[in-house]
Amino acid sequence: MKAVRYTAAGGVVVDRDRVLVLRRPSRNEVRLPKGHLEKGETAAQAALREVTEESGYADPQIVADLGLQRVEFDYAGAHVVRDERYFCMSLPHPEDGDLRRVDRKRKEWQFVPDWLPWEEALSELTYEPEKEWVRRARLAAPGAAH
C-alpha cells in the first residue's frame, strides 16, 4: 500500500459558548476547518487561511496553540499519515454584533458553516480526532465553560 504523509493545520473557532463547525452535505460530514500547508507557510498562517477560505469568516485571531496530533488512516488505496496542528481562534466582533464574512473561493462552497454549543459540536463532529481538538480548545478558550 502506498504511503502518503503531509502536515495540515486548522482552527477551532470559538464565539462565546459556541464552536464553528463546517457541514459538508455531499459527504454527510461535520468537520472543523483545516487544510494542507502551502509552500513557505507556517502552521499558524495555514490555519488562519483555511478558516477564512472554508468558513467565509474574516480576520480570525489565534487565541492559543492547541498542539500537534498525528492521525493515520487508509484512504483510496493509500496509508495516510497526517500531522495536524490546531489553534483555538476567535473572531472580532464589530459594534453591530454581526461577524464579518468575506467572499469565498468557489471550491470552498462545499462547506456550510454552523455555530453549535460545545456539547453539540462534540456530539456532531464526524471524526474523533477533531473532537479532541474541541476538547483542547474548550480548556484554552477565554471565558469558556469547562
Structure description:
- The protein has a single domain (2-93, 108-140), classed as Nucleoside Triphosphate Pyrophosphohydrolase.
- The protein contains 3 helices and 7 strands.
- The chain has helices at 43-55, 118-124, 128-140, and strands at residues 2-15, 18-24, 29-31, 34-36, 61-75, 78-90, 112-117.
- Strands 1, 2, 3, 4, 5, 6 and 7 form a 7-stranded mixed beta sheet that branches.
- Helix 2 (118-124) runs antiparallel to helix 3.
- The longest helix is centred in the middle third of the chain and has 13 residues, at 43-55.
Low-confidence spans: none
Helix content: 10-25%
Roughly how many Å is the radius of gyration? 15 Å
Helix/strand/pairing class, anyone? alpha+beta
Which CATH class applies here? Alpha Beta
Number of domains: 1
Counted beta strands? 7
What string, H for helix and E for strand, traces the elements in order? EEEEHEEEHH
Question: Count of helical segments?
Answer: 3
Mean pLDDT, rounded to whole units? 89
Could you give a short account of the major beta sheet?
7 strands, mixed
Strand content: 35-45%
- The termini sit apart by 42 Å
* Fourth-tier CATH superfamily name: Nucleoside Triphosphate Pyrophosphohydrolase
Query: Mind telling me which CATH architecture this is?
Result: Alpha-Beta Complex
Shape: globular
| CATH-derived topology | Nucleoside Triphosphate Pyrophosphohydrolase
List the helices and strands and how they pair.
Elements: E1 2-15, E2 18-24, E3 29-31, E4 34-36, H1 43-55, E5 61-75, E6 78-90, E7 112-117, H2 118-124, H3 128-140
Parallel strand pairs: 1-6
Antiparallel strand pairs: 1-2, 1-4, 2-3, 2-7, 5-6
